[in-house]
Amino acid sequence: MTLEELMSEVYGRGFDDLRGNATEEARVKRWLNYAQREIADYAPWPFLEANKESTAPITFTDLGHVLSVTDLAHDEQLTYADRRELIGYDPNLSAVGAAERWYMEGEGTLKVYPADTSSKFLVRYVKVVTDLSAASDTPIIPTNYQELIVEGAVIRAYRNRDNYDAAKLVREEWRLGMELMNKALVKRNMDVERKVLRTGWPQDYV
Predict the structure, then answer these.
(1) Closest by CA position to 8, among listed 141, 149, 145
(2) Is the pLDDT of residue 200 over 70?
(3) Average pLDDT over residues 29-42
(4) Among 58, 151, 181, 187, which has the minimal tally of Cβ within 10 Å of its Cβ?
(5) For the chain, what is the mean pLDDT?
(6) CA–CA gap between residue 132 and residue 175 (Å, rounded)
(7) Which of 155, 151, 181, 139 is nearest to 43 (CA)?
(8) What pLDDT does 197 receive?
(9) So where are the chain's domains?
(10) Distance between CA atoms of 1 and 132, rounded to whole angstroms?
(11) DSSP string computed for the chain
C-alpha cells in the first residue's frame, strides 16, 4: 500500500473525521511512520538486511545495526571494538596494516583498525526504515503484513481520543499479528534442536 492508501485505511477504521484537516492528516502520517518503525525494531527482519562493499572508512546513511564486517582481501571476519578501547593503547589510532577490528566513528562511519585504506570490506547490516512522506511512498514492510502498520496507527488514534479500552484490544490483535510475522519471516528453522552427548576422559561434555 502507498502512504495515501494506508491513511485511507486508518480513516476507514472510524476516524474519517480526521480526513481533510491538514493538522490531523499530518498526525495520522506520524502515527503510521511510528508504527512502521515499531515493527522494524521488533525483530531482525530479513527484509531489512543489506550489504555494502567498499574500502574503509565506510559511510552509511541508513545504518541500523552492523551484523558482520569481512576483510575480502584476507578472507577474515573482523571483530568489533569500542573506539575508547583502541585509543587506550593507540591514542592517535595511527597503526597501519591488515585490519583486525572495526569500530564506529560517529553515527554513520565505520572504520577499521589497524587502518587499511586499500583492501575492500563487506559489511552486512540492518537498515533503518525511511519515513513515508509523499502520498505515493510505500513502506518497506512486506505487503502481506502492512495491515500491522495500520493497526499500529489506529492504536495511537484511539489513545488520542482517550479510548484506552479500544486501544488495548487493537494492541492485542497487533501483538498476535507480530508473532505470526516473526514466525513466518524470522524463525525459519523448523528442525528440532539436537544435542549430542559425548562421554569419556577427562570429563563428560555435550
Answers:
(1) 149
(2) no
(3) 95
(4) 187
(5) 91
(6) 23
(7) 181
(8) 53
(9) 3-46+130-185, 49-127
(10) 11
(11) --HHHHHHHHIIIIIGGGTT-HHHHHHHHHHHHHHHHHHHTTS--GGGEEEEEEESSEE-SSEEEEEEEEETTTTEEEEE--HHHHHTT-TT---BSS--EEEEETTTEEEEESB-SSSEEEEEEEEPPPPP-STT---SS-GGGTHHHHHHHHHHHHHHTT-HHHHHHHHHHHHHHHHHHHHHHT----SPP----B--SS--B-
Q: How far is CA 168 from the centre of its chain?
A: 25
* Phi and psi at residue 109, to the nearest 5°: -120, 120
Place of cell 569500542: 82
Please state, for a pLDDT cut of 90, what percent of the chain lies above it: 86
- CA dihedral of residues 115, 117, 122, 127 (deg, nearest 10): 80
pLDDT surpasses 80 at 194? no
Question: Which residues in 134-149 are b (16+ Cβ under 10 Å) and which e?
Answer: eeeeebbbeeebbbbb
* Cβ atoms < 10 Å from Cβ of 60: 19
